[in-house]
Amino acid sequence: MQAFEFYSPTKIIFGPGTEQQVGTQAAAWGASKVLVVYGGQSAVRSGLLDRVLASLQQCGLAYETLGGVHPNPRLSLVREGLKKALDFGADFLLAVGGGSVIDTAKAIADGAANPELDIWDDIWLRKVPLEKALPVGVILTIPAAGSESSESSVLTKDDTLEKRGFSSSFQRPRFAIMNPELTFTLPSYQVSCGIVDIMMHTMDRYFNPVTTNELTDEIALGLLRTVVRNGRQALEQPGDYQAMSELMWAGSLSHNGLTGLGGPLDFATHQLGHELSARFDAAHGATLAAMWGSWARYCMDTNPARFARFGQQVWGLDAAGKTEQEQALAAIEATEDYFRSIGMPTCLSELLGAAQSAQVLEMLTVGCTFHGQRTIGSFRILGHEDILAIYNLANH
Ligand code: NZQ
Ligand code: ZN
Question: What is the pTM of this model?
Fold first, then answer.
């Protein structure tokens, strides 16, 4: 194992009915005035929101609500929520939903603890280091983004369509309540997007330049096998508790740092995907599925043996008589076959309905480099020419 730091203090409360504990948990973390953040309709329709508010009330906690978070959440709603939090004097943020809701709550928590700072210009663009945030608790309704135990959050600025992530240990949720039964109302498309996102949080860690973290790699490969198997099962049998519970736990472990300990993050596919979400409002997991195969074909020669091992251990591919390059290509094809089998796109026309013009690809590339200010990736470091080449590979 190489040197690492691991700090993942989110308390996980996992299992059927656990959402009934939300009032007690929030109170235990010092909440007295809770701003409850939720999405479009799902938490209202299922009755979950009512149960949550009742639990807060029973524990003597005051609350206000902020609904209407869209997937790929917007800065404008964060600003609205921030005003609400400050007017109300909120001392705790409770997110009831998925990554978009949790990330909105995290951003409000950052801003409300630092009202003298601008949430985008100062905090998100890192002009001023974040030194405090209000505590955040989560009731998770979709296994996907891993935000329930990650230190990151991702927002899109409405006017410029920049989708940017921000990480700070102050954003790590205090607790995450995870009842797999709450996911049973998910449309299959969202289940599939979640499966891809969970896989990619581990693959964007596994494909890094360090190959001497044996236990980390074994955890990563075992997690991927578990997600592949249970992902299939969850889609074939909607409402299968066993499959959904495995996915839900994998979603958290995939993005709390565990599956990449000792190596640098790659996350190039995430950065390529974020531009597609920003410009076309495409679902996060689907953008990753559309880009990964092209990233992998472009980068596999950097370390084909690593792809070969991934192919053998995740997809059960036979190495006999094949070169490492052939094994690597077979592993990429097996991954894309799986994505297609769960209804996910593997190129831009499947994601967006049509291939894109050269002008659009250039615009995506410029956005991805933050206008020439950064490279992406660590497995292979990618600049403007590389990124454009990968978008071109995916453009069919
Ligand atoms: O808005 P509602 O009506 O709740 O519907 C949501 C939404 O349309 C629906 N949904 C959620 N739970 C449901 C449900 N529908 C029925 N029943 C349920 N139980 O699912 C849709 C997607 O929700 P969203 O929160 O957007 O999904 P996800 O968890 O995939 O989050 C995606 C966002 O997280 C960011 C992504 O970029 C994207 O903006 N990410 C955040 C990360 C982090 N903070 O650590 C890391 C990730 O890599 C990712 O970037
Ligand atoms: Zn992701």
Answer: 0.98
